[in-house]
Amino acid sequence: MVMSRRASSVLPLSLASVEDESVCPEQEAAFFEAMSGHKFIPAGRILAGAGTGRNVTLFNCFVMGTIPDDMSGIFEHLKEAALTMQAGGGIGYDFSTLRPKGAPARGVGADASGPLTFMDVWDSMCRTVMSAGHRRGAMMATMRRSTDYFVTAQTLQPADHVRMQAAAQPDSDSAISKTINVPENINFEAFKDVHMQAWNIGCTTYRLNDVTGSVLSVEPAKPADTAAPIDRPEALPGQT
Description:
The protein is mainly alpha-helical and 240 residues long. It has helices spanning 5-16, 24-36, 44-49, 71-86, 115-128, 158-168, 188-200, and strands at residues 61-63, 90-94, 104-105, 110-111, 130-131, 135-136, 139-142. The longest helix is centred in the N-terminal third of the chain and has 16 residues, at 71-86.
């Protein structure tokens, strides 16, 4: 693969420009040699922004600050997120600091709308702001406390797992896969129903258990191989 003209000329110079002037040419040559031999490939934001003269970040991702549980602080962080994404950076926020839905907001005599509603505000901002001029931004939100808003893979019924897989299947190749959580003691007929549901909507299933074997197999489980213990002599040669 041949580097582009910009990558071969501008990027090494831009990367070396932060070094002392006395070693800048030497570092530029070192960067060029490493990149041209594909020993070193800068991250995506560096490739896209270094040497362009644009006011963009060269960092891919940012772990953002703590969101305070008040309206002015929340929207101050929303502004910070929008400006970071505009410059090309991906952002990550923890929304666990916001009070849950229904909690009293005594200062205004109202109930809190909850962290999910503010996640929607961040989501709208992410859809609106064009990151670094030509792409939508990358954003991640986390919640550390238990909440009734979300379900986990363990609480979803197996049929719901299959429907989730089927929704993505038409737009992907065979590389897609999904773990369907079922009880370890699921009986043959129950799992057969899951298997046939997946088969009928274009998915396939595979379940192998090291202890019981494949649940779709009628072969009896094979006993695990166990090695006999080795007798230890009372006395061993050598010194300590």
